[in-house]
Amino acid sequence: KKYWRKGHSWLDYAWPKAWIPQGVFCSQKGMVSFIWEDKNRWKYVIVRHTDDWLFHETIYAHLSTIECLLWQYLLAWDQLGMSGAPGNVQWVHLHLCLRPINYNKNNIIK
Q: Is this model's pTM higher than 0.70 or not?
């Protein structure tokens, strides 16, 4: 299920069994360019894709575990973590954001 609201620039994907963490997989090949782990709140991974003509990053947030390393090269469908509910959320889901690489880095998470 997808959720979108004004001021929320991410898509939220809830799992059918929202209380059970599920694997989160890379959408296409790319390199892990950023990892953030906070014990009590956010865990997220940014993968940089520079294939063909499209230069963008994909952000995967609200992970319960991160199973990749910084600068690791991932292929499409490589597992990068497990979904979770860290932070101020009530159910297991994935925050997903696709953005151009020249995006303002000061606005990663609001």
A: yes
User: Rounded to whole angstroms, how far apart are CA atoms 50 and 17?
Assistant: 34
Cα–Cα distance between 47 and 35 in angstroms, integer? 9
> Rounded CA gap, 90 and 95, in Å?
13
Residues in contact with 108: Cβ distance below 8 Å, sequence separation at least 6, in sequence order: 46, 59
27-57 residue pLDDT tens:
989 999 999 987 767 789 999 987 765 678 8
The Cα 2–Cα 61 span in angstroms is 15
- What is the identity of the amino acid at 13? Y
Query: For residue 58, is pLDDT > 50?
Result: yes
Average pLDDT, the chain: 78
Contacts of 20 (CB under 8 A, 6+ apart): 92
| Residues 108, 97 contacting (CB under 8 angstroms) | no
